[in-house]
Design a protein that fits this description.
The protein has about 375 residues and is an alpha/beta fold. Helix content is about 40%, strand content about 20%.
């Protein structure tokens, strides 16, 4: 399953520095001037999961294949982007292609780094970006409205549902609120997603702080946390500079480096966990002599859907899934022992996969 998170923000807030650290590449230019990133850079990273090593050890696997996700470094948004200012149209199109958005907000003072507004105010920065996305959503919905109204008046059932959603979204947007605050039922979710609203995407506010604030945050991050709560978004505190330094160190030295700063793990780990939570994602595993592999699915997915992540034929021809809980697989020492202990279950099409399940699928070709 592909998952793509867009990294957005005003120029010089640390977006590209964070992107370089996360992907451990120098693909994105980090320069002290606006629009240094013209094309969106995409970096694919492994999802850290300590369970993989343990499963591979028990399964005597030759290879370990973690789940993967993509980060997109999107050029800095500026006021007027919704009207094409800067490279606005291109930026907005790139954001539309992402599953979720990480808003990088500058929460540190540094006279050597120019701020596009000549002041450090993370809430003002957040509002500039969010406003541009809301304006783009308003324009999109207002263009669609006449056509949908016409179909609804003609009795089109789907159009009536869409029209109701559009009106609810417009009411919020016109009040300066994001579309992710639209109250909707599970039955309405598909139609709502088809509106492709920028402000309906799950959002994560990333507070980029100095080294001294990396462990506990600061006054600015506290303000962002309150702002994020009001906008139905998540928040994380991270130092892009620390992550950049960490990315250059040998793995053996990284733990010592983090501990000296009062940190327990890289920011990447926390960022991915928040991203997973935002989109309701979870992991299941396959284990064998050739490889131990992590697969990403949505919470609530049933066994055939999980099988389909490996190959569509697995889903079409699904018969059953041998399933062992991670804790049972590890504590009992593998598949054979789990079977002997009665902990290997044969689950059918209605089984809702749980995070950490070790699975083996049976299917018709």
């Amino acid at each position: 399953m592909g998952f793509k998170m867009g990294i957005v923000g005003l120029p010089n807030v640390g977006k590209s520095t964070l992107f370089n650290a996360l992907t451990r590449t120098a693909a994105a230019q980090a320069a002290n001037f606006p629009f240094c990133t013209i094309e969106p850079n995409i970096g694919e990273v492994a999802v850290p999961d300590a369970r993989l090593e343990e499963l591979a050890r028990i399964g005597k696997s030759a290879n370990i294949l973690p789940a993967r996700m993509s980060f997109v470094d999107i050029a800095g948004l500026v006021k007027g982007a919704s009207k094409g200012e800067g490279l606005g149209n291109q930026f907005l199109a790139n954001i539309r292609e992402c599953d979720a958005i990480a808003y990088v907000l500058r929460c540190f003072e540094d006279s050597n780094i120019i701020h596009v507004a000549n002041s450090v105010d993370p809430l003002a920065d957040a509002e500039v970006v969010e406003t541009e996305l809301m304006l783009a959503d308003l324009e999109s919905l207002e263009k669609r409205l006449p056509g949908v109204e016409k179909k609804a008046k003609q009795g089109d059932k789907d159009a009536k549902l869409t029209l109701d959603l559009i009106n609810r979204a417009l009411a919020l947007l016109r009040e300066g609120k994001s579309a992710r605050l639209v109250q909707r039922s599970a039955e309405e979710e598909k139609a709502f997603s088809e509106l492709q609203l920028l402000t309906s995407k799950p959002a994560l506010y990333v507070c980029n702080v100095d080294e001294a604030s990396a462990a506990d945050g600061n006054a600015m991050t506290g303000e962002v946390e309150a702002y994020a709560k009001a906008h139905n978004a998540a928040v994380i505190v991270i130092s892009a500079e620390i992550e950049s330094q960490l990315a250059q160190l040998p793995e053996a030295e990284q733990t010592e480096f983090l501990e000296a700063l009062g940190l327990h793990e890289p920011g990447l780990n926390r960022l991915i966990r928040e991203a997973y939570a935002l989109l309701g994602l979870q992991t299941y595993f396959t284990v064998g002599p050739k490889e131990t592999r992590a697969w990403t699915i949505h919470k609530g997915d049933r066994a055939p859907q999980a099988a389909g992540v490996i190959h569509s034929d697995f889903e079409r021809g699904f018969i059953r899934a041998q399933t062992i809980a991670y804790d049972d697989f590890v504590s009992l020492g593998g598949e054979v022992a789990a079977k002997e202990a009665g902990k290997a279950r044969d689950e059918g099409k209605d089984y809702v996969v749980r995070d950490g399940d070790v699975m083996l699928f049976k299917f018709n070709t």
